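Here's my example:
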Amino acid sequence: MKNFLVVGILQFCFIIVHAQITIGGKVTDKQTREPLEQAIITVNRTSGNILTDKNGSFTISNLHPGDSLSIRFIGYINQSVIVAANTKILHIELEKGRFDLKEVIITNHVNNLISSHTLSSIDLNMQPVKSAQDLLKLIPGLFIAQHQGGGKAEQIFLRGFDADHGTDVNVSVDGMPVNMVSHAHGQGYADLHFLIPETVAGYDFGKGPYYTGKGDLNTAGYVAYNTINVLDKNMLKIEGGQFNSGRLVTMLNLLNETGKAKGQSAYIAGEALYSDGGPFHLPEHFTRYNLFGKFLTNIGSNNKLSLSLSTLSSGWRSAGEIPDRAISEGYIPDRYGVIDSFQGGYTSRTNANIKLTSQLGNHFTWENQAYYSHYYFNLISNFSYYYYFPVEGDEFRQFEIRNMGGFSSKLSRQDNIGQATYNTVVGAGFRYDDISPSELDHTQYGQFLAHLQYGRTREWNTNAYLEETVRSGNWLINAGIRLDYFHFYYQNMATDTFATNIYAGVSPTAGKATVSPKLNIEYTFNPKFQLYFKSGKGFHSNDARVVIANQGFEILPAAWGADLGFNWKPIPSLYLNTAIWYLYLQQEFTFGEDLIDQPGGPVQPSGKTSREGIDFSARYQLTDWLFASVNLNIAKPRFTDSAAGHDYVPLAPTFTSTSSLDFRFKNGWNGGISYRYIHDRAANSDYSLTALGYFVTDLSVNYTQKKYQIGLAIENLFNVKFAESQFEYVSRLKYETQPVDDVSYTPGVPFFAKLKYTLFF
């Protein structure tokens, strides 16, 4: 009897074990057939979660016949599937639907740890992009300011950094760098105006230097945009508003449904813009023309090729920054006046970007990408008026022509060993910039007088990295190491200028390597609460002209940082993200000091700095049609090698906040009201000068139907008088006998309304 019982038990166990099922599958958008990365598949019996990879693929083991799976993706309608005994492969198509914050759950996944994917997905659903500037405004804690005309790259503030135009923020589009190293205007110059906002499908961002795949300029953080792969409908948009502003955008599919069925996609997008820029007495005459095209196709069953081409052409005039005393002394009539009417610029950028993604089987992916940019930049500015040159004036031109190219290769593999999942990433790449010429010229009335700096720059960056992520139970550990090598070359071609003496007898080449370790840990208590710790080393490269002038001294200043934070859903309709953080910087960059952008020439590095602060973000769905968001960001930036009272980092933000209240009714009415606030901050190192803060409110209202949308957008709803960008300059007006150390500013645009009409077809 005992033998029969033992045999029966063994047979029963055998049946149970062999009844377990392993299935694979893919989650795609029903309309576009595009794979959905980070869709969540939940096994309802165990409450275990699996996330899809870049190809929308997933594998689930230890399933039983009759198990139910829930599939969800932010902004899509949830779907449920019952597992049958013969189920081997699932192809799940999700339809877009109304956003519901209750459906968002917290998971332990590598992409959520090393980026803020969940937060960015929520924001993109709650607050669709309205303009090119909104692309950066979407990042919690990131502030921007425009000065010297609408065609210039925005000034960026993040985590206690005045990052100028990108010195400490790594920006990319579809994996192609946006930042320009050793730029004529400023290190890391990141002009995003070649990106048409309507083509953006999503974005990731991360704060701090914790990301193995991100290299140069990733100190305060990074922002990575992805453009649409498959266009779900054609679109024509017309905008018009005050200050003679107008904009035309179109996006057109180039392939039919037959092409989609073959896994192909091709579309083209165009943008034309004109604006006087505001009530300035000198209209900006700002024009921008963009053209973008993207093509995707399958090569065999395991390879996907993506090719995109784009071009930008933009020109503008600028009133520039003005000091308050220019108004009080009657030099100009009001804050919209102009001192030098020849300021302004022209820029163009043409890009080619190609990417091949290959599936090597068994969760093994190989990505290869190559890109090329041809870039032209010409900017005339005057910050100090008649300080350096009392007769001709201090007007100067920054000019460059650049060819930039690069290549990156990345192998990714996922393995399941026991109860643990291992994600291994190995990557390598290079970037080469050839800038010829690179100029700083003295001009008068826009006409060339003399070279202040004139030469040719070549810069080469080679990198390699290894990253391992282990997920076991509630734990997720991500560790990585990155190696970067830079080679700088600067050939001085100027004669009889200050640059002649600086570069005389100095070697035109310099090189250095740096190693950047990273360690990130996450513990997910449940789908409602998650604790994380991030740490690592990052760096920003120095401008090649400064590297050579300083004979290779402090070529790659390091940044060391750490974050301790949590993601929490205390109630189903509320999502909270909070972090306390610290960052130490081996060398600070401040505008107009570390680069050769003034006749005074390069100076010694600005010094070591530390920053500490708190980031807080909340997303709350009050009803099925009303959404609220708030971001609070506190920072304490200080020079660590300066005396107390003289250790303020000029223009570095100490407190910023943004918030919005958005509505979305089923009948098509949608929109919202939002504010942005920046607190007063030091304009110089001893805080004897203040950069004034401001609080500005924007409003948008739209009526959206299947075939069209009508909208109204208002910037600066309450017509607040504010200074958008501010800088400390020692300047001298034409009739002044002595120079004055003062704050100059660009006034923000007053109440600005525009109407929009969009046709979908």
